[in-house]
UniProtKB/TrEMBL annotation:
InterPro entries: YkvI-like (IPR038728). It comes from the Bacteria. The chain crosses the membrane at residues 33-53, 85-106, 112-131, 138-160, 180-205, 217-237, 257-283, 295-315, 321-342. This is Membrane protein YkvI. The keyword Transmembrane applies. Keywords: Membrane, Transmembrane, Transmembrane helix.
Length: 363
């Protein structure tokens, strides 16, 4: 169970970046639908748990060392190869976005020049990637409980100060600013985008497990934890939606309402979550092309330097360019994962044999 919890923490740690922790993603995908944000989050939670279980179990079964093995099994050789390349470079793009986001946060909260925050994030990311994968998983997992604690404190304070009034929530909710036309599609899109973000690192993490069941449990717990965080942050924003809907970083606003110290603590945790995602993305990208070994250290250094240089394109510009396309990639992965599960349920003996043959090709 301890290893399952490690996987769950790492799953959450990779998914939760600046947009999630700041509350902006949750505002756009969920809270803007008012009280309908709750069923949307429940839908996303079920899907996160399902995807976490499936990917973790499959990667454990194949003893995957990168996402390529999993994508080939799910999508076949030709479509799998195309998705493999596209996903690999989007991982790099998300890593660049995280470096840019680190620069934005240190400027907004602490008044430090953005390039210093970007340099610091790049250096610590490269140094972390030089560790063994098990140690990387441990580091990523260890930060998740701190986010959970600070979010509980912020939401508890917000609920004590202002209760949730459903009529007011629906009055100030603005579905025209939401990320999709309705709450069902928005819940699906949110999972789709995050599947593309977290798929590669979850594949690597699951591949370190010998026990498929243990890996699957970790994936389920991770999905449930993501849902709990979504519900908590959404509840906190509902307490003062009239003001919060106009904020760039809603949770940071709520934290500063308690105390500037709490705001600073949350900013540091947000930077830690950016670091988690940055390590996950750059590690997954690098290990796809250069296995851990003689040239891995040089490779991660080059990847970090190029990522730092590209981060000067700007946080907002990068987000608007990379994230929408990743949503479509995520839908393809989500469809492939679902189809794989349907086949395994209805044709269990055949599916197991087919997967074992493919696994043998990679091992």
């Amino acid at each position: 169970m301890k290893k399952s919890i490690y996987l769950a923490g790492a799953f959450v740690g990779v998914i939760v970046g600046a947009g999630f922790g700041s509350g902006q993603e949750i505002l756009q995908f969920f809270t803007n639908f008012g009280m309908f944000s709750i069923p949307a989050i429940l839908l996303s939670t079920v899907l996160f748990a399902f995807v976490g279980m499936q990917v973790a179990q499959l990667s454990s079964h194949l003893q995957a060392t990168s996402h390529k093995e999993i994508i080939t099994v799910l999508c076949g050789r030709y479509l799998g190869n195309a998705l493999d390349i596209v996903l690999s470079f989007f991982l790099f793009g998300v890593g660049v976005i995280m470096i840019a986001g680190a620069g934005s946060i240190v400027t907004q909260q602490f008044g430090i020049p953005a390039f210093i925050g970007a340099i610091g994030m790049t250096v610590i990311t490269v140094l972390t990637m030089l560790l063994k994968v098990e140690r990387i998983i441990g580091i990523i997992s260890s930060i998740t409980p701190f986010l959970l604690v600070i979010v509980i404190v912020i939401v508890a304070y917000a609920l004590m100060k202002n209760s949730i009034n459903p009529d007011q929530v629906n009055q100030y909710a603005d579905s025209t600013k939401a990320s999709a036309a309705n709450w069902v599609l928005s819940g699906l899109l949110y999972v789709s985008f995050n599947v593309a973000v977290g798929f590669s690192m979850l594949s690597v993490i699951g591949g370190t497990f010998k026990d498929k069941k243990q890996a699957g449990i970790g994936g389920i717990i991770g999905g449930i934890l993501l849902g709990v965080l979504l519900l908590l942050i959404n509840a906190g924003m509902m307490t003062d939606l009239a003001v919060i809907k106009n904020m760039d970083m809603p949770t940071l606003y709520l934290a500063n309402m308690i105390s500037p110290i709490v705001g600073n603590v949350l900013s540091i945790i947000l930077l830690a979550m950016i670091y988690n995602t940055c390590v996950g993305m750059f590690y997954s990208f690098t290990v796809r092309f250069v296995p851990q070994g003689r040239y891995f250290g040089v490779s991660v250094s080059v990847v970090g330097i190029i990522g730092f240089a590209l981060s000067f394109a700007g946080f907002t510009t990068l987000v608007n360019t990379v994230y929408p396309i990743m949503g479509y990639v995520g839908f393809m992965l989500l469809a492939a994962i679902t189809w794989s599960w349907i086949r395994s349920v209805h044709h269990a003996p055949l599916q197991k044999s087919s997967m074992q043959i493919k696994a043998d090709k990679f091992n």
